[in-house]
Amino acid sequence: MKKTFFVSAFLAFAAVAAFKFNAAAQEIPVINHITVYVVDLKKSSDFYKNAMLFKEIPEPFHDGRHVWLRMGPHAQLHVVQGAKVITQHDINVHMAFTVPDLKKFTAHLDQMHVKYGNWKGDSKEPQLRPDGVKQIYFQDPDNNWIEVNDDKF
Q: If residue 43 lies in a helix (H) or strand (E), which one and from where to where?
C-alpha cells in the first residue's frame, strides 16, 4: 500500500514538473527570422537558395527589395537589399545551421564552388568542437559568416 502511494505520488509530481517545464519552454522566445542586409539582392538570395538550399516563400512587401526564404520548420531568412558597401565581419558573429550529413553538405558546397573551412580558415577539414560536433565556416556574398555543423542535439 505504501509502495503504491509513493509511486502514485512520484508520478503525480513528475506530471506536474513536466507540465511546468513544457509551459516554461513555450514562454521563451523562439526564432522567427533573421535578416541580412545586402548590396545585391539577386546574388545574395541566389546564394542562400542554391548553396544553403533554402526555399523562397511569399513576402508581403512586393517592392523588389525583399526575398524571404524558409530556413526550417518555423524560421525564415529575410534578405533585404539596401546596403551600400560590403564590409568585413568577424567570424565570431555568425549564423549556425545543422545538417544530418556534413560530408554530403561539403560535397554540395564543392559543387557550388563555395569556399569553406575550419575556424582558422587554414583547412577544408571540419573544425572539431570539444563535444565532438564538426563545424565548417564560410561567407555569403556580403561576407556574413555562416557555420554549418553536424550537431545531433
A: helix 41-50
E-strand ranges in 25-119 read 33-38, 55-57, 66-72, 75-81, 94-98
Grid-cell match 563555395, residue found:
114
Please state the pTM of the whole predicted model. 0.83
**CA atoms within a 13 Å half-sphere pointing along the CA-CB vector of 40:** 11
Q: What share of the chain is helix, strand, coil (3-state, %, to 5)?
A: 30, 25, 40
CA distances from 122 to 11, 94, 100, 125, 127 (A): 54, 18, 24, 9, 10
Residues 6+ apart with CB under 8 A from 125: 117, 118
Across the range 26-32, mean pLDDT stands at: 92
Show the cell assigned to 116: 569553406
Is residue 35 within 8 Å of residue 76, measured between CB atoms?
no
Distance, CA of 135 to CA of 153 (rounded, Å):
14
